[in-house]
Design brief:
By secondary structure, the chain is mainly alpha-helical. It is 68% helix and 0% strand. Among the domains are: 76 residues, lambda repressor-like DNA-binding domains (434 Repressor (Amino-terminal Domain), Orthogonal Bundle); 129 residues, no CATH class; 81 residues. Helix 16 packs antiparallel against helix 17. 43% of the residues are buried.
């Protein structure tokens, strides 16, 4: 019998296999050590081993390398072969009726009854979310990790039926408000039912109503991708893929742009910077002949995202050129009804903020200092965008070695959006500052308050 067979007997699920292999190491590998080797948090490893997350193939291969597990064994454990259910003719509910004996009329009557019942049930459930601010099933529970609730909603969606388009749009508007105000726990609690209702609604309608439902579903999944990205959850891949499928079915530029941008973010986080840039450029060119304000606003948003993306592989000229082009488009746009659904708007201040991000990623913080000096954070319309600006400013000062100014920016994030400072990337910045300069007054208390411990 091979060593692998003794360590990982057949039949283990992914979590059991990983725990078994960690325990077989000498010395035993902890979850913290595995997380550090993989580049993820301990909580992420805990969720994988607990069966709450099934990583992408590339990540599974990385896990296999770190834990010295045959890749085929690990992939099989993560995606076990499905078995066809065995139906017992003697069991309750088995009618003995074959598909051939069910008439089309019977099927139509049953389907119409189910759809009508589902429509009413879905409307009632989504209405509860809009009135209470969270799903009824989540009431009385303590706030959960936004990534955990989102992943549960994506992989194990709650039961929901279709709802009127106006009600779905209103629920989506409320979810967007949570994101813009950086209320990520509330957003994570509401998204599962919103996504399930969006899926049921687009399956219910036909014609133009279906296209509108697809657009709403695309926006909802793009919003889920935004939340997953902020929490460094690999669920961003699932959300982006579903958003893109719904957006293409809608035939509208705004949902297509949002979904494409989210997929590019997922690709960028996986280190596929060139592929992400190619995707954005290809889609931006597809919209170049569309003269509508919405299409132009989407193009500008994609150029800003692409500029930041190409900065990851050091192309300074292309990165700054794309920001310049987006700003030129933004100056000619008339922002109003119809453009509010484009998350990144190419205003002068927003373009300057992206220029700051580009300089940080290029390792040129000196060039970013005059950019920051020209920006009034108060001009950004949402708490999420203001917090993003302060985060980039903190990174700039951190690169320049100014601990006091870095800490001042971190405190500004907390002031604008308390949940932002608990994001993995911001906590990592706080930890770096804590380990390098514990003499700053209030730093230890700030670290403890935001979940970073020395």
């Amino acid at each position: 019998m091979s060593v692998h067979a003794m360590i990982a007997p057949p039949g283990l699920d992914l979590g059991a296999l990983m725990r078994s292999r960690r325990g077989a190491r000498r010395p035993k590998m902890t979850q913290e050590a595995l997380a550090a080797a993989l580049g993820y948090s301990k909580s992420w490893v805990c969720r994988v081993e607990g069966g709450q997350i099934v990583p992408q193939i590339e990540t599974l291969l990385h896990i296999a390398t770190v834990l010295d597990i045959p890749p085929d064994d690990l992939i099989t454990a993560a995606h076990p072969p499905e078995r066809d259910p065995v139906r017992n003719p003697q069991s309750p509910g088995f009618s003995g009726q074959t598909a051939a004996t069910v008439t089309r009329e019977d099927h139509a009557i049953q389907e119409d009854t189910v759809r009508r019942r589902g429509f009413l049930t879905g409307a009632a459930g989504l209405g509860a979310v809009m009135v209470t601010g969270s799903p009824a099933t989540a009431a009385s529970h303590s706030p959960a990790d936004p990534a955990t609730t989102l992943e549960a909603g994506l992989f194990h969606p709650p039961a929901a039926g279709p709802v009127p388009l106006g009600q779905l749009a209103q629920a989506l508007h409320q979810a967007r408000a949570h994101f813009r105000h950086a209320r990520y726990q509330a957003l994570g609690a509401e998204l599962p039912l919103l996504l399930a209702a969006a899926d049921a609604t687009r399956d219910h309608f036909t014609g133009h109503a279906k296209e509108r439902a697809c657009a709403l579903a695309a926006y909802a999944y793009s919003l889920a991708g935004e939340l997953a990205s902020k929490q460094h959850s690999e669920a961003v891949w699932v959300a982006a893929d579903r958003a893109l499928a719904a957006a293409r079915a809608s035939g509208q530029p705004a949902p297509l742009g949002e979904a494409t941008r989210m997929l590019s973010v997922a690709m960028r986080r996986a280190g596929r910077h060139h592929q992400a840039a190619d995707l954005l450029v290809h889609t931006e060119r597809q919209l170049a002949d569309d003269p509508t304000e919405q299409a132009r606003a989407v193009r500008a948003a994609m150029l800003l995202t692409c500029g930041y993306t190409v900065a990851h592989y050091g192309d300074r000229t292309a990165a700054l050129g794309m920001v310049d082009e987006a700003e030129a488009i933004g100056q000619r746009l008339r922002y109003g009804p119809g453009l509010e659904k484009v998350s990144i708007q190419a205003t002068r201040e927003q373009c300057a903020s992206f220029r700051l991000s580009v300089y940080n990623k290029l390792g040129s913080p000196d060039d970013a200092v005059p950019v920051v000096a020209r920006i009034d954070p108060g001009v950004f319309p949402t708490a999420e965008r203001r917090a993003r600006f302060h985060t980039d400013t903190a990174r700039m000062w951190h690169q320049l070695g100014s601990d006091a100014r870095t800490f001042a920016s971190l405190r500004a994030i907390e002031h604008e959006a308390p949940e932002e400072v608990r994001r993995p990337s911001v906590k990592a910045l706080t930890a770096d500052l804590l380990y390098s300069s514990t003499s700053l007054p209030g730093l230890k208390e700030f670290a403890a308050r935001t979940g970073v411990h020395s």
